[in-house]
Every structure is written in structure tokens, then in C-alpha cells.
Amino acid sequence: MRDRQIKWLLTISILLLSFLTVFIFFKIHYIWNPLFLMVKAILVPFFISGFITYLLHPIIEKLHRTGVPRSLSILIIYFLFFGLIGYGFYRGIPLLITQLRDLSENFPEISLIYTEWINSIHAQTDNWPDGIHDKIDGMLQQTEEWLVLTIEKVMNGIKNLVDYVLLLAIIPFLVFYMLKDYEQLKRAAWYLTPRKLRKPAIKFLRDIDDSLGDYIRGQLLVCFIIGTIAFLSLWFFNVKYPLILGLVIGTTNIIPYFGPIIGAVPALIIAATMSSKTIIVVIIIILSLQFLEGNILGPLIVGRSLHMHPIVIMLALLAGGEIGGVLGMMVAVPVVVVLRVMVVHLVQMRRNH
Fold it and tell me: Which of 66-70, 141-145, 203-207, 225-229 has the highest mean pLDDT?
């Protein structure tokens, strides 16, 4: 009994010292912040390049298995990927800057429409219980703050794009060499991993890849297709800011269930500043895109690779939204998948021991 008390006391002491160390670490951030910025500038290109390599490698392997030499497969996929991205930046950035500038100039008019919507919802829910009413008000306020903050961030990001030219220029070279030396990198990671952790680590990473890899690649492809179709449809019907709205619709589409609603709100607000006919057109476009994604693109490209119950996914989305807003909802499902695999492996390791 005494040994158990000493063990618990030691555990609590270690936890308290750990929290104290973390607290002091963040208090003296002015000392390590320059080092952190330097390490960040070095590691960010590697993480981005590693993620792109992870996305492209299976495609290259599939092309190689059809009989195309591996070197040629790398070159084909590499130039297609970065060629499309480069062309998109070349043609899209000037148009995006023009639309963002126009949006910022006309923002008071859009804000007025948005305020009228909020007042209408507020009046319709005035007789509801205070808790529900306050929750709706909080959600609307958070949405408004997110819209304003997102526009500011995008504008500042484009203005500061010149500062990241070197970073963007390094990534294609890193991706090329990572794809070219993929097996050597795997072998290096194998030797750097402690011997007793090698087999569990390989099984853990393989299970994560099996659970998440196809989902991420498929979902990104679906989002790209949906965003492109949304942009072309809005542009064809002369809806204002089609590129911005297409980007929003495509990006938020990565969020299951709630993504289409979040992506539709800005498009409907913009349409409301134009005409009733435009609102109907935008609603038809949004519903058509969701039918296309839910019945054709989703099952065909993404499939049911997650093997998670919809209730679990919705709870993950709610938790992600509470913690990190829209960005938290975007990463909630992959995080839950990784945690699920991690828990399964920890339980297996505990049973084995």
C-alpha cells in the first residue's frame, strides 16, 4: 500500500514538474523564438514536400505497374502536378487579387445584407429558450468574424507572397528528390528508428495509410473538382467573385456533412446583393454540386475508406469546430482516424506485454 502511494506521489510530482517546465518554456519565448523561426523556415518546406510526395507516390507506382519506367512515371506525374499548380497560380492570382480588391471595396454593401439576415434570424428565434438563442447568436457572430478574418488573411498572404517565393521555389526540387529516392528515404527511416520499435512503427504507419491515405487523396481530388465546377458555373451565370466563391466551396467541401452548408453561405450572401434570380441560380448550383459529390464523385473516388460510423464523424466535427473553428473541422476526421489507430495499437501492445 505504501509503495503504491509513493508511486502515485512520484507520478503527480512528475506531471506537476512537466507542466511547470512547459509554463516556464512559454514564458521565456523571447529567448527561443528566433531559433524557432529558423527551424520553422527549414522544416516547413520539408513537411509540405513530404505531404506532396505522400500524395503522388501511389499514383506514380500505379503508373509504373502499367509498364511505364519509374523515372518516366515520376517525370510525368511531377510535371503534370506542378505544371497545373504553376498555371493555376499564373492565371488565378491576378484574378484573385482583382476580385478580393473589389470584394473589400463592396464589403459594406455585403455586410448590410448579412446584418439584415442576422436580424431576421434573431427576430424569428426571439421566443426560443435563452440558451438556444444565445448559441445561434454566438454561431452567427463567429461566422461573421471568420469571414472578415479570412478575407484579411488572404489579402495579407497575397501581399506577402514575395517573401515566400524562395520557399515555394524549393518545394518542387525537394519533392522531385523525395520521389526519386523514396526507397532510400524509407531505408534511412528504418535504420534511424530504434530496433525494438521498427516492426510496431511499420505496422502503425501501414494501418494509418490504409485507413487515411486513400481518403485524403480522394477527398482532395473531389474538392478540386467541386471547386473548379463551382467556379465555372458561377462565372458562366455572371455571379460576382466566382473564383473566391469557388475556392471557398471547394475548400469547405472537405468537411463532411457541414462543409456544403458553410461553403454555400458566402455564395448566397453575394447572390443576395445581386438579384432574386441570382439567388435561385446559386441554390441550384449548390444543390447540383452536392448531388454530384454525394452520388457520383464521392462513391467513385473516395468510397468508404474511413470505415467510421456517421455519428463518430459528426461528433469529431463538432469537437473540431469547438476547438479550432472551420480549420478544426477540416482536420477533425483525419485526427480521429489517427487516434483510433493509435488506441488500437496501444491496446494490442498492452495485451502482448
Answer: 225-229
Which phi and psi (to 5°) does residue 288 adopt? -65, -40
3-class secondary structure, 238: coil
The pLDDT-based confidence of 305 (bands split at 50, 70, 90) is low
298 has pLDDT over 80: no
Phi, then psi, of 237 in degrees rounded to 5: -95, 15
CA distances from 77 to 60, 72, 87, 93 (A): 7, 9, 15, 23
Would you tell me how many other CB atoms lie within 10 Å of the CB of residue 282?
Answer: 24
How many Cβ atoms are within 10 Å of 275's Cβ, its own excluded? 10
Distance CA 117, CA 282 (A): 17
Within 13 Å of residue 331, how many CA atoms lie on the same side as its CB? 8
DSSP string of 239-255, one letter each residue: -SSHHHHHHHHHHHTTS
Question: How many other C-beta atoms can be found within 10 angstroms of the C-beta atom of residue 36?
Answer: 11
Q: Is the dihedral of CA 125, 129, 130, 132 positive or negative?
A: negative
Using only C-alpha atoms, the chain has a radius of gyration, in whole angstroms, of 24
CB atoms inside a 10 Å sphere around CB 336: 19
Q: Is 38 exposed, middle or buried (0-12, 13-18, 19+ CB in 10 A)?
A: exposed
Helix (H) or strand (E) segment spanning residue 272: helix 259-272
**Spatial CB neighbours of 137, under 8 Å, sequence gap ≥ 6:** 122
Give residue 187's identity as a one-letter amino acid code: R
How long is the chain?
Answer: 353
